[in-house]
Design brief:
148 residues, 7-stranded mixed β-sheet, 4 helices, globular
């Protein structure tokens, strides 16, 4: 696999001319996840989306979610009930049919007000048009500790 690494651009106009489609869509995806822009998520993610959140996350979040509506409604929305948090991407890697995002979740636990800074890696499956799934790897202990 030929891997290309880029720093995510703060705006679309700042992207380099050599950026691939998957990286450009990845930038849009992470902005939408950070801001909760569901309209963009429905444009970028497949209706048959499969999300796998890290085992050990609090409140049973760490499981597989089948379908985009389920991922948004039962996965990300449920996390949002307990955390005001978003992904800050340090690096994205173009793996052809997979986008790898690496960075930090930054935010707070709503019940306690404690800060959260948890490392992550995301492996986004890509069919050439939309992202079809994600496997999340994150520090679940940091998430859990913020709720105590």
């Amino acid at each position: 696999m030929n891997m290309t690494t880029v720093q995510p651009a703060p705006t679309a106009s700042a992207k380099g001319a050599g950026s691939s489609d998957i990286l450009a869509k990845g930038e849009q995806l992470y902005v939408a996840l950070r801001t909760g822009d569901v309209e963009v998520l429905y444009r970028l993610l497949s209706p048959n989306f499969r999300g796998e959140l890290t085992a050990g996350l609090p409140h049973g979040f760490g499981r597989v979610y089948e379908g985009l509506d389920v991922m948004i409604g039962q996965g990300w929305s449920a996390v949002g009930e307990y955390f005001q948090i978003g992904p800050q991407v340090d690096r994205m890697y173009d793996g052809g049919d997979v986008l790898i995002g690496r960075g930090w979740y930054m935010g707070t636990a709503k019940p306690t007000g404690k800060p959260v800074r948890a490392a992550f890696a995301h492996f986004w499956s890509y069919d050439g048009e939309r992202f079809t799934g994600v496997q999340q790897v994150t520090d679940s202990a940091t998430w859990a500790a913020a709720l105590i």
